[in-house]
Amino acid sequence: MTIEQQIDQRVEERLNELLPQITEKLRQELIFKQTNQVMFNKKQLAERIGKSTTTIYRYMKKGLPYRYTPTGSLEFDIREVEKWLNKK
Question: Does pTM surpass 0.85?
Answer without folding.
Answer: no
